[in-house]
Amino acid sequence: MPARLTFQRRGIVEGFFGPPWSMEHRAAIFEFGAKRGMNTYLYAPKDDPYHRERWREPYPEAGWSKLLNLFHLARERRIDFVYGFHPGKGLCFSAEEPIATLLTKAERFYEAGVRTFAVLFDDIPSRLKHAEDQKEFGGSLAKAEAVWLQKILDRQPTAWNDIEWWICPSYYTEDPLLARTFGTFEPSFLETLADHLPQSVACFWTGPSVVSKRITLAHVRKVARCLKRRLILWDNYPVNDLSMSKEMHLSPLTGRDPRLPEGVYGYLNNPLLQESLSFIPLATCFDYAADPGGYDPEKSWQRVIEELFGKETILHWQAIREFCERISQSKDKNRPGLLPRQKRAALETARRYILDNRGQRWAEEFRLWLDLIEENLTRKND
């Protein structure tokens, strides 16, 4: 019997904008995910100031103690804790001081047992800002980011022969949204990056879009041919930050080619901001990552609903899920289209189910969407 095709790295990138998850929830996700094949967790919450805005500063003792405990919890579950640096904002790539600062901060993690680090240049301007960088790198942001990684590897302690480094380049998808948001990128960004990046560094990619509906093997192979490096998919499902904050992604993961492991080293999902509700879609992501060829979205989704809430709640959650899908597809997130009559009875029953569970954490997290359900049910016509 042939071996099951799967990704070497499977898990979560906590990489959203918004309040970082609680330490208690992270520990619960480690337990939940480990049972489903999760083996990697990238710590990269955008709103942790010591990860991004104040990345040069060491963690205060209280924060460091919590991170250390989280690392030990991950190790107990055989999950690789990956620490992400986000140094790109305002960075002078030609300066030596930031590299020394990053390695000093990384050394504290290394001494604690961390062996994988990520340097993330996502969501920064697409062009170099400093005159000295323009001169040293010929105006190429791609070259600057790649050479910066090379300098890190060159300057890290010689004893660090068991370290793995990853990069998220500023150009992490071919989606035009990226250029509209951060400015036009230089031509042949990925090829230039590949010309200067150390061969051992794995690269992040989000797929054909920032939030991709489909990711095919043909697509990732095309990207891998440009990068000539191991590829890690940073899948922005089921995340709902920024412009998606009115959306609630409770549906199972779909649109991912079962053959992706043939061209992808790692597969990490960026989760919902809502802690309790995040278990629903993440369970399906874990199931896909562990066994892409055998993954059945609907069976996976029903299993997690039965596990978390009981088999008798399936119809309620189907109605809730369908309504949330309607919001995601609507141009006006505050006023999704009126439900057909045959769907309204099921949603009304689901509404009562939510109200009956108001003391539960997940129902509190769902408060915004409960208001939208109630508004839709009381509306006569658009």
Can you lay out the helices and strands and say which pair or pack?
Elements: E1 9-14, H1 23-34, E2 40-43, H2 61-76, E3 80-85, H3 97-112, E4 116-120, H4 131-136, H5 141-155, E5 164-168, H6 176-182, H7 189-196, E6 202-205, H8 217-227, E7 231-235, E8 266-269, H9 275-290, H10 297-309, H11 314-329, H12 341-356, H13 361-365, H14 367-378
Parallel strand pairs: 1-2, 1-8, 2-3, 3-4, 4-5, 5-6, 6-7, 7-8
Helix pairs in contact: 1-2, 1-9, 3-5, 5-7, 9-10, 11-12, 12-14
Q: Count up the helices.
A: 14
The CATH topology assignment of the largest domain is TIM Barrel
Instruction: Report the strand count.
Output: 8
Domains, number: 2
Mean pLDDT: 96
Straight-line distance between termini: 57 Å
Which descriptor suits the 3D outline?
A: globular
What portion of residues is helical? 40-55%
CATH homologous superfamily grouping of the largest domain: Glycosidases
